[in-house]
Give the backbone structure.
Amino acid sequence: MSWQPPWGRAGVAVSQATVRLSLAPNAAGPVVEEPAIGEETGSKEDVDLPWQVVVHNDPVNLMTYVTMVFQRVFGYPREKAERHMLEVHHKGHSILWSGVRERAELYVQQLHGYLLLATLEKVN
Amino acid sequence: MEICRQKDELEISELDPFLAELLRQIPVSTKPEGTPTAEDRLFSPPAGTKEKEICAEWKLYVQPELRRLFRSATETVAADLEQLNGNEKPFANCTLRIPAKHADAWLNALNQARLVIVAKNNFTDGELCDHYRSPIGSRRDLSLFQVNFYGFLQEFILRELIGSQEKPCD
């Protein structure tokens, strides 16, 4: 799936800044105006905290299938994907990835497309 | 039943009427309607209950996309299964050919069907691991057999997918 949810952009920290050049009277050269910084759309907490993608155990999904999904979604080599799959199987869950919220949301969306039980969580 | 890869197709031959009927049941088995637990399993929440905003927006923007994806996979499988309806002799064994490019759709639809059947029957882990239970005993036993049969098909398709990635076909 390549569709990106509109809310995936909410955590963007740096808003558009504009820099304009203008000529002031009696000035020898161009004057740089102060950049106008727009307001952030997400809360500071959302921006600062990393998020993690957690996959939970499910007795129905086949082990080989889960391994293949991890390889496809995260681009992990087979051995790493299998390690995570076994962690899900034995411990009930595995943290597959952590980082910015927008990316975590997209990973969770892809995992749901493969019918895996996946959630995104704030890293404490 | 014989199952093998023939160039760009996965071929399931010598399908007896019982197994052919189980295959025909795949599209209808993916429908969670009427069973909230099945619906909840196909469309599980993306975050914990504290993340109300994320869950609400997910329902609004992502769930419709997921529904489309699942429906599309089921429609592909249903179209492939049309081959089983043209048999002139109703009780004869038949053959199903699945184009290799439909493998992902089959994996998805089989997974939907397995998840929905398990949710509808509320199977325990113990039951799911019992691969030798007879399908004849009851409707519940038949459903469990269906889950295991679909799982077997998934395993075969996965083996072919992984095999074709690791060693190129001649």
About this structure: Strands of chain A lie at 17-18, 21-22, 31-32, 36-37, 51-56, 93-99, 118-122. Residues 1-32 of chain A have pLDDT under 50 and may be disordered. The helical segments of chain A are 44-48, 63-74, 78-91, 101-113. Residues 78-91 of chain A form the longest helix (14 residues).
